[in-house]
Amino acid sequence: MQIYLPIAEVSVNAFLLLGLGGIVGILSGMFGVGGGFLMTPLLFFIGIPPAVAVATEAVQIVASSFSGVLAHLRRKTVDLRMGTVLLIGGLIGAAIGVVLFNYLKSLGQVDLLVRLCYVVFLGIIGGLMFIESWRAIRRSKIVGARPVRRKHGLVHALPLKMKFRVSGLYISVIPPLIIGLCVGILAAIMGVGGGFIMVPAMIYLLGMPTKVVIGTSLFQIIFVTAFTTMLHATTNFTVDIVLAVLLLIGGVIGAQVGTRIGVKMKAENLRILLAMMVLVVCGKLAFDLLVMPSELYSIGVAGGH
Q1: What is the pLDDT of residue 291?
Q2: Local structure of residue 240 (DSSP, 8 states)
Q3: Which of 27, 139, 174, 244 is the residue whose CA sits 20 to 30 A from 66?
Q4: Comparing C-alpha atoms, which of 93, 253, 99, 109 is closest to residue 186?
């Protein structure tokens, strides 16, 4: 069933969009990621203009993350205090990111830079997560193996400490603020929720339990992405409501399914699956950057720059 998207100015199969929304919703519920790092390239692939894809995908991230958070709140696996600290950093980061994005746009190299950011961040994080998760799975198979305790070092040495009861932590608020800030900047520049960076950072840098990380990550993503969407809608007018609604419906249903799957899986298996997915997307984006395009030259629209 073909449906016309007024802002994107293209016709797309409605069931395809519902399916894509559902898949990303499942990932959101399982891993605590918004899914933008996967959905945005998929929207490019089916012919949605990049500016519309980035802005509209942010709406879908908000919806699927909200749906996932509700499920995690029922299970009491959301650290609201930690989420609030991350959120403060995230909102500041998103505002900085928009200013930075406009500056890069004025230089005319924003598309290339965004793709390079994707490849670098996804490659480093996916690789580190995969190695650590693989080691954790191997350790869990050894009978009588003691779990490795993470050394926090610098995180514990910093001032302005606060108790995070749900996470079982007593650490400085500075590292969560910095993580939130970085994720906020990326959300504004790359059109992603930032969960693929925030989830590993919360696990490995802050030492939070994986089950709590997922719900807390989604809580922060909702507000930062909503703020970014609002900026896109009011400054660039690139949010396609029809596209957003279809992705939304699929995303909300998928998030509920994903949350149920995630609760039943081991933390190590969840992390290695997310790592593999991040590496696959990284590989595809790197391949697209290196391969020669089918059309070397394009004719600009009259009056364009």
Answers
A1: 75
A2: -
A3: 174
A4: 93
